[in-house]
C-alpha cells in the first residue's frame, strides 16, 4: 500500500500567515491609538490657546454680541463679506475704539461734525445713512465687536466627515475594516483547508485501492417537466396571468411621473427656504392664491432676500452639499440677474434661467390652484408632499384621475368662515342626510368639473 504524504509545509504557511496578519493588525491599532492621542492633545492645546486669546481680549462677550448683531446689525452688515455696509471683521484693527463707539451710537452726528473718516465711509458706500443706536452702551458695542472679530468658522460638513472617519477607525480601538479583513482571511483559509483535506482523502483512497462510487445520472429537470403535461398546462396559465397583470400595470403607468426629480439649472433647496427659514410657500408662488397656476417665481422675488444674502451660514451645509456649493449657486443667481455684489449695482445684462417643470397635468384635465388653496384651504403638502424637507424637489403624488377622485371622496368641505359654501352646504347636507359633505357629494367627481 502506498503512503500518502502529509503537506506539513502548507500548514506551516497557513499558521505563519495568520500570525503575520494578527501582528500587522495590532500594530495598525497601536498606530491609530497613538494618532488619536496626538489629535486629542493638539485639540486640547488649540482649545487652550483659544481660551487664552478670549481671556486676553479687551472686547466683550461674543455670545451676547451675536444676539445684538442679529437683531440690530444683520440687516445691513455681515461679519466676513460686504453687504449694504462693509464687512465688519477686522474693524477694530482699522478704526479706533472710541471712534467706533461714536460712529455706532450716532453716525449722522459724526458726519455732520466734519470727521474725515466718517465722511469717507459715507461717500464710499453711496451715502447710505446708518441708523443711530443711542441705546447701546460701550459694553454692548464691545460685545458686538467681540462677535464680529471671531475667526471665520469652518463648514461643519468637513467636521462631520472627520468625526465619521474617527468613528470608523476608532470606536473602541478596533477598526471595522481590520475586522472584515480578518473574517475574509479566515474564510479563505477554511476553504483552502477543506480543499487540501478533500485532496488528501482522495489520494489516500487511490493509494488504498478504494474506488469512490460515482453518483448515478438523473434525468434533467427540464425533461421531467416537459414530459408532465399537467405541470406544463398549469405553468402556462400562471405565466399568461402574470404577463397580463404586469403588462396592464406597466401600461397604466404611462404618463405617470411619480418620483420625477430633475436637476435644475440653479440648485434651490426647499429644505433651507421652506424648512429651516420657514418661508411660506405662497411668498414665492404668490399666484397660487388667485390663479389656475401656482407660477414660477421671477428672479426679482429671489433678490428680495439674496440682495443681502451672498452666502449661506456654515451650519446650513450638509455632508452632500458644502457651503461652497451653496455659495456658487447664489453666484449663478447673481449672474442671471446681472447683479454685482461688490458694487451692489445691476449691470442690466440678464440671462434666462431654464427651470425644468416637475408637476405637469395633461391639457385635458382642468385644475385650479386658487380653488384649492384659497377656497378649500388645502395645504401645499397635501399634493406636493413634505416640500419643507426636500433638498431637491420631486413629484410626491401620482396626480392620476383615480388619486384625485379618492381625495374628493375622502375630504370634507370646510365651511367654517367660508361663505362660498354655506348655502349649498345647507341644501346638500339635508339631501344626503349628513352633517359634513365631502367634495364628491358637492359635485367634485362630475366629469365636467375637470374635463370640459
Automatic annotation (TrEMBL):
Keywords: Electron transport, Heme, Iron, Membrane, Metal-binding, Signal, Transmembrane, Transmembrane helix, Transport. GO terms for molecular function: electron transfer activity; heme binding; metal ion binding. It holds the Pfam family Cytochrom_CIII. It comes from the Bacteria. The chain crosses the membrane at residues 178-197, 230-251. Residues 1-30 form the signal peptide. Residues 60-152 form the Cytochrome c domain. SUPFAM superfamilies: Cytochrome c, Multiheme cytochromes. This is C-type cytochrome. It comes from Christiangramia oceanisediminis.
Amino acid at each position: 500500500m502506498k503512503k500518502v504524504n502529509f503537506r506539513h509545509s502548507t500548514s506551516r504557511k497557513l499558521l505563519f500567515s495568520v500570525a503575520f496578519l494578527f501582528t500587522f493588525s495590532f500594530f495598525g491599532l497601536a498606530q491609530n491609538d497613538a494618532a488619536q492621542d496626538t489629535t486629542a492633545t493638539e485639540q486640547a492645546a488649540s482649545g487652550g490657546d483659544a481660551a487664552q486669546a478670549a481671556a486676553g481680549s479687551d472686547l466683550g462677550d461674543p455670545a451676547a454680541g451675536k444676539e445684538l448683531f442679529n437683531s440690530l446689525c444683520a440687516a445691513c452688515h455681515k461679519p466676513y463679506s460686504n453687504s449694504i455696509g462693509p464687512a465688519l471683521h477686522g474693524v477694530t484693527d482699522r478704526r479706533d475704539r472710541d471712534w467706533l463707539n461714536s460712529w455706532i451710537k450716532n453716525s449722522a452726528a459724526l458726519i455732520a461734525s466734519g470727521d474725515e473718516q466718517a465722511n469717507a465711509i459715507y461717500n464710499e458706500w453711496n451715502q447710505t445713512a446708518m441708523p443711530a443706536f443711542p441705546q447701546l452702551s460701550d459694553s454692548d458695542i464691545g460685545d458686538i465687536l467681540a462677535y464680529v472679530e471671531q475667526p471665520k468658522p469652518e463648514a461643519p460638513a468637513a467636521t462631520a466627515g472627520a468625526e465619521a472617519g474617527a468613528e470608523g477607525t476608532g470606536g473602541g480601538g478596533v477598526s471595522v475594516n481590520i475586522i472584515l479583513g480578518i473574517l475574509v482571511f479566515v474564510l479563505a483559509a477554511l476553504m483552502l483547508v477543506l480543499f487540501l483535506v478533500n485532496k488528501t482523502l482522495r489520494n489516500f483512497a487511490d493509494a488504498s485501492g478504494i474506488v469512490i462510487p460515482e453518483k448515478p445520472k438523473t434525468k434533467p429537470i427540464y425533461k421531467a417537466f416537459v414530459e408532465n403535461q399537467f405541470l406544463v398546462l398549469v405553468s402556462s396559465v400562471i405565466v399568461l396571468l402574470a404577463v397580463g397583470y404586469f403588462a396592464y400595470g406597466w401600461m397604466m403607468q404611462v404618463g405617470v411621473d411619480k418620483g420625477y426629480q430633475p436637476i435644475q439649472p440653479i440648485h434651490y433647496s426647499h429644505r433651507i427656504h421652506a424648512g429651516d427659514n420657514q418661508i411660506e410657500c405662497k411668498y414665492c408662488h404668490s399666484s397660487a392664491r388667485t390663479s389656475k397656476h401656482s407660477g414660477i417665481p421671477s428672479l426679482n422675488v429671489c433678490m428680495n432676500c439674496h440682495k443681502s444674502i451672498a452666502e449661506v451660514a456654515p451650519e446650513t451645509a450638509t455632508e452632500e452639499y458644502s457651503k461652497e456649493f451653496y455659495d456658487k449657486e447664489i453666484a449663478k443667481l447673481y449672474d442671471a440677474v446681472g447683479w454685482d455684489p461688490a458694487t451692489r449695482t445691476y449691470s442690466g445684462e440678464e440671462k434666462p434661467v431654464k427651470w425644468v417643470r416637475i408637476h405637469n397635468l395633461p391639457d385635458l384635465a382642468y385644475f385650479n390652484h386658487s380653488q384649492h388653496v384659497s377656497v378649500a384651504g388645502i395645504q401645499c403638502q397635501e399634493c406636493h408632499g413634505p416640500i419643507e424637507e426636500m433638498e431637491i424637489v420631486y413629484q410626491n403624488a401620482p396626480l392620476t384621475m383615480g388619486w384625485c377622485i379618492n381625495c374628493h371622496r375622502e375630504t370634507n368641505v370646510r365651511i367654517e368662515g367660508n361663505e362660498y359654501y354655506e348655502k349649498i352646504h345647507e341644501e346638500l347636507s339635508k339631501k344626503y342626510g349628513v352633517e359634513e359633505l365631502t367634495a364628491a357629494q358637492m359635485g367634485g367627481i362630475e366629469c365636467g368639473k375637470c374635463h370640459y
